[in-house]
Structures are given as C-alpha cells and as structure tokens.
Structure prediction request, 277 residues.
Amino acid sequence: MRKNGGSGETFIARIWYIITPIAAYILVSNICQVLLTLLYQKIVSDGTGPLSLFLLAHSGNINIGITMTGAAVGWIVVAATAKREAVRDELRESILPAKRRNRGYLIIAVTGCIALGFALNILFGITGFLENSTVTSNVQQYQYQVSYALGLVAYGIVMPFIEESVFRSVVYLRLRSFSTVLTSALISAALFGVYHMNILQAVYGFIMGLIFAYSYAAFRRFAVPFAMHSLTNILIFTISYFGLFNAMCTYGWFAAFLAVVDISCVLVFGFTKSKSL
Prediction:
C-alpha cells in the first residue's frame, strides 16, 4: 500500500483500501442479479408457455440461483486480490503456538464455532426476536423456499466460500497490513455484519465474523474459517428446513451449546502465553 504524507490522507487512503473490494463485489453482484431478475421476469411475463410455467413452479430455486450467480460474478472481481493478500499474509505468525494448531484442536475449534451459531440462533428464538422481526421472517421465507439439495449448495458451500474470500481473505488481511489482529477482526466483523442488512443478521454476522477472523489468525489457513462457516450454515439450515429448530428453542439447549463454546475456547486458547494481538 502506498505511503501518504499527512495522517488525514493516510486515514482516507486506508478506508478506500478496505472499502473498495467490498464495494466492487456488492456493485457487480447486484448488477448481475438485477439483469438476471429482469430476464427471468421477461421470460415468465406471459405465464402460459412451458418454460414460463416451469420457471414459475420453481421460483424459489430460480431466485437462489440468481443470488448465487450474482455472488459468483462479484467474487471474480476480487478473486485475484484475495490471492495476493493471502500470499502477503504467509509471513505473519499465528496467534497460537504450533502444538495448538493440529487436527485435534482444529476439530475442537470448529465444534465450538458450530455450537456458537446454534446458541445465537436459539437465543434469538427464545427471546422472540426471530418471531417479531418482519425483515428476518422475510429472509427466512426466501431461504427456505428452495429445495434442500440446492439450499445445501447455496448456503453451505457457495455463499460461505464467497463471503470468506471477500471478508477474511481480502478485508481482514488488508486490515492486518496496518493494524492488530484484534482491530482487524473487529472491523472486518463489523463490515460483515452490516453487509447482511438487517439487525439480527448483523449482530449474528458480527459475532460469527469475529470467530472466523480469529480462526484465520490462529490456524493460518483459509480452509478453517470456510469450514466453520460452511458447517454451521449446513447444520442450522438442515435443522430449520425440517422443522426441528423450534423444539430446540429452550434455555436448556442454549446453555448446553454455550457450555460447548466455553469448553472449546478454553481448550484451544486457554492456558497459553498470549502473543501480541
């Protein structure tokens, strides 16, 4: 990144440096989605042809297909940047000692992340926030209109990969070029939360984004936050898709998942001398 003379110029340049890839991704993906939506609407406008009837009958799958396609096109814009930032990041040290980065500790960390995802969703459920949020209800209705298989692909693979590429491989790593792990994790998580565009998902995205960023800093592999994001989405989507989530919205389940989170944090990060964050 280019050095600047004044502190004000440096601050503005840094904001531009961080925001540009997010803006490029959102702009390109949204343009693509709008164009595909217009094409879809044009095809189904007569409502009588066999193709129109087929598309109307599978509108839920078509909508998520449009979303995935737009996101994939937006990802292409930032893919090269993500690769460059990952190469630059190779020289940074992990915040965990080497003995805490093996497969066993990785499984514990991923398990804790999944438990946190469940705990947060259950908390939103038992407090009534999910039920009373019109925006969240609309989002959920949109998400669960798809077939189960396509939902797994969309929410379990495609979107986690793209979002981790943008917000961890680009935004978080760019922040690390001039700030600490903690500051980078907080800012990238906040941007990830705002990206979701409604208050409950913003809170959820911020908390989970912190975990994803710290997992990147700890295990030094993109595959780790991607696996956390992917598996959490897959399991929560599956439980909700088959109507089992409401039965889990109890303080007992919340406490159980929270206990798993606490134990995982202690096992992975506890009892070690902390490196500079």
About this structure: Residues 7-44 form the longest helix (38 residues).
